[in-house]
Amino acid sequence: MLYSTFYLGNTQMAVPIPCILEIGRSFNFHPVRGAPEVIDGLINLRGKVVTIVNLGLAFEESKIAPSDESRIFIFKNNSELKEVADSDLVTETAPDNIGIHVDRISDVIRVENEELQSVPANMVHPFYKHVVRRGESFIIILEPSKILNLHETPDLLS
Amino acid sequence: MNREDEVFKNFLVEMGEKLDELEGGLAELEEGFSQDVVNKLFRAVHTIKGGGGFFGLVKVSELSHIFEDLLMKVREGDLSYSEEMIGPFYSACDALKGMHESEDLGNSLDITQICSELKAVEGSDKIPESTLTEKSDHEPTEIVWEKDSTEVLEPEEPQASNQANRKVEKVAAVSGTKEVKEASPSKKSQAKQIPTTDNKGSQNETIRVKVDLLNKLMELTGEIVLGRNQLLRQFADMEDKSNMVAMAHMISDLQQLVLQTRMQPIGGTFTKFKRIVRDLAKQLDKPIDLVIKGEDTELDRSIIESLSDPLTHLIRNCADHGLEDPSTRVGQGKDRVGTVLLEAKHEGGQVVITVEDDGKGIDAEKVKAKAIANNVISSAEAESMGENEAAKLIFHPGLSTAEEVTSLSGRGVGMDVVKSTFEKLGGAIDLETNIGKGTKVIIHLPTTLTIMSSLIVRIEGDRYAVPHSELKEVILVRPEDEIQIEKIRERDVYRLRGTLIPILSMEEITGVSKREETSSETISRNGEVLFLVLHSGLNQFGLLIDSIDHTEEIVVKPLAQILSRHTFYAGSSILGDSDVAMVLSANGICQSHKLHIHDLETNIKTNKSLAEMQILDLQEKQDLMVFRYSKGEQLAIPLSLVFKVEQIEVSQIQKISDNHFINLEGKNILLLYLDKYLSLKPLPDGLETFYIITPKIKDFEVGIVASSIEESVHTRLNLDNPPINQNAILGITTIREKITFLVDLFSLAEQVSPERFKRIDLEGRPEQDRLLVVEDTPFFRDLEKTYFESVGFRVTLANNGQEALDLLMERPRYFNLVVSDIVMPVMDGYELVKSMKSSEKLDHIPVIALTSFTEEQSREKALAAGFDGYAIKTNKENILRAVEQFLIEE
Prior knowledge:
By secondary structure, chain A is mainly β. Chain A contains 4 helices and 10 strands.
């Protein structure tokens, strides 16, 4: 399957391309007063309201600041995903359109299922699904379902 | 999906409908036997049986067969109907419903008991042996029966039934056995009758549409409305916008119609309560009368669907906890039969559902004690709680007052679920209880969830949308005003026409304080404070805002799950300028802040500032909206009579003969140019935009044209008589050092459409002319005085009940008649009339209530309190009618 990769800080991460609706520049977010810190705000994506999550905090780094390089990965919602992708990916997303804020976008990579390795015990994180080796470095494959259903991870919301 | 599945799905839908029909029919049958009803029941059961047989639902077809048989005998007169049959009929209906809902459609269910119960109705021996054997070998026979029933289905669902029919014929041909013939004759005769009695269906001219499709249509319409708003904004500067405006109106119409497609009368949901109440009455051994009103009230489908369960719970509560045993009731002088009232009605853009019983009411002390025991409140909190406030604790999870747990209710689960269900629908629930008299639960619901007319406001830099359905008014408090926002027990409050309302800021609501720069903004307002008065059910509160942007029809989009904890937001929306705005929810705010008005009132009562508060009451001023028509003259009307103010463009005006109209939200509204009615200069030339004011007067749908809206002021009214006799001018006053005409909207209405607002020239003169008018609102006080004087009364004024009582006691023989408002500070109308009627000196003086309460209950309540008459102050005619009977013809 094809994965789109991006950087959060210095870590390269990847998500399956079929889950992605589009990738955009960091817009002007409409802040939601009273919302938890991990939420940057809402944007108007051609008539759709998309909630933007800032994963910087989720990985215990600092918040990602909008810059020329920063991008937003907007994920398909369940019904959009159902229309195009394999049904097993549907569980990966949420009923709402959610976007994640990343530091910068990187290459598209093809990963065969055999290449997927489990996450080493010393770096287990609820959002990590697999790791993939590319040359000298590791790329972390994220579990979109966990990120997109953040409300099920209450500690992050406080 | 394969065809067969589809046919089966259609059948399941159909079965659901038939079951509803069946239930409705049984309720009718219960009220009285009629051949029509039995026919209806028979048809419903017959269809179910047919389908059940066709699709191999053994148990469904077995039970419905027996049921059908029984109904047929009743129909043909072989068996005479008796009331005892109803019970088993209902049980059969329930059993079928259960099967319909179960996973395997009842195939694994044991139905021997219910079958024998049914058979017992006519005596089991009467059921022919052959019928019973048929069932064990049901397939061939059932198929033949199915063939009959599909004929019945045909007009409604040609596709499905044709398909079914073809199949049936095929199978029947293969298995054409002896039994087939045996069964045929009797069934044939039924089949013949059915189409003739069932032709109603084809006359209704309805088609079945998938809900999904309607939802998509609705969603798309929402987007179109949004697009329209954006276009209108984008091309606001264009010269010739006529095409766009025309399209905008069509889109409004489209939106209305699409909304309507989703509207359903609530009656369907209400009907089944007859049944439930009947069962309850039996189970609890209490005779109960269920009164249903307003079945035709329409609500969005999705709302109606969610109403059934919570309403069932409320009604059960009424029956179980609310109503007393018949013997207790008789002992208390009540009717043996308890009454439960279920009513739906439209009110101010919302639907209000009331569930009321005339039972024992809720014992506030008991609830408090339990709440304290369960650590829901502290005893100190309990102390300061009002009765209704305490009763509302039953909505708290884990509280129920029934001392005994019955099978129906009393486990302490439920009321909180009921409450949250209504709140999820954007509604609010409230409760009024009166020990010994009964309990009333009032539910406010929006009619639809998707498109809402909203006010867009700015709060500390951000824009928020506030649905009009939750907005009561906008108030500006200036430093020089006498009523200011005060602090009571660390809370900001404002006294709004005699009611204290809490004032909240966005900071209090969200718990997040905004960046510092906003504080300078607040100061720049010169100490003026602007806030919205929002309401959720009966609770009101003020929300501090910086400014008002505009009004817009918004499409509310639900919040992402991540944000769903933030109940003070109802959702988000994209505004006409493509910006995102959060939609505030008055309900959510009340909920998350546990705002309760009664609570606050109680706090106030114990507060030392009570005396000060009363002084404030006496100095109550009045809100006026000041506007201009021509350049020079400043005009004013009471804010309480303003429904809406809108800015419009000259290009939007449509001329029809001499009249000018404007289309607002699909309504053509007549424009009123005041220079035609008052001696004013004409409207200045070259205006491109102006304002129209829509007054809040029944049957007076006009737009009063204004060249500019100046402000709204809160001031004491010192009215001088107009220098020239002008009908529609109430008087002259000075506002901001400018002479201002106060327009008399009621007289204006009379002049504009005399046929509707015909002036009553009460030619009579008062028999006895010394009239005391008791009224706290200055505007109405002056208005009433003018009106009553115009028919010859000598009017004395009092500001409230206490003042009136003092005046009356001073000179008990002086006044011949008292006209009093009901809601007043210090002493209200009820108290006044009670004191008067219990005083020997004063009980001879007739007292008329003149109020703005339009509900029938208020009239009853007023008359019960001792008022001799009741009139509503909606227009001059009504006001004068209050004293009509005291006039004599000359």
